[in-house]
Write a structure and sequence with these properties.
single chain, two-stranded antiparallel sheet, mainly alpha
Amino acid sequence: MGKVFLAIFGGRNVLVLVLLVLALITGIVNPRFLTLQNALNIMLQVSVLGIVSIGATILLVSGGLDLSVGSLLSLSAYIAGLVILRFQSLPLAILLAFCTSVGFGAFNGLLAATERAHPFIITLGMMTFLQGIAIAISRGSPINGMGGLYELIGIRDFLRIPLPVFVFLTVLVVADIFLRYFPLGRYAYAIGGNQEASRLSGIRVGRVKVILYALNGVCVGIAAIVLSAILDSALPTMGSGYELRAVAATVIGGTPLFGGRGSVWRTLLGVLLLGLVSNSLNLMGVSANLQNVVLGAIMVMAVMFQGSK
């Protein structure tokens, strides 16, 4: 039955149809769901996940994977908080947060380029390592107050769009241009499609991997700054869970785990599905204990439909 459904509507249209049906049902149950303010709230809620998912998309199309992004987000944000706390310098804090995220991102790329272990294992170990550093330097204590970052990004808007949402959409467009029109973007697809053929055609696979993982680190750094601005705080575990949700959103959007194809616009659909489900469950009064059950079931079904293409 699933194949017949896909044959009628097509792979990507299935996800669009799910989003529309979900929006219609929730709008009937609670009319507040269909308001512009709620739409902006949903976009605000998924903005950080969306930025992280864009980085995951860049890696997945090349056959890469990074499970350390949640821990790296936490560490980068906390380092920024420490700098603000001690030196009262917001530009320096942002700079060091990016240096941390890009540096560890590139290091993950160097390890992946050796091809001595699968990126899943490499970044799983790095996830634990970075999480340990964040907890060690913080001693489990949060930093409250991010030196004006909340006023600069957290509550500011641009053209009536919350600035975190605008940052997310900007990263989305830039990433799409990169993957479509830049040589490195085309190399990512080539490596994901056939790494050995790419190497034989003259592509420096190892160097490209390092750059792509560093770009993933750029996305993590942006996400760390945006999340810190929204919360006006930095916590050693604030990025927990983002790594799995980012991969889930990307795969739900139609980017396969084995690489070779995918699009950040499809990832946007996956991110919106997760955001709509969460928002719908809240508006329909579903208890928190049942929300993960429903969300997990919908994620599995969505991935199965996408995997049937």
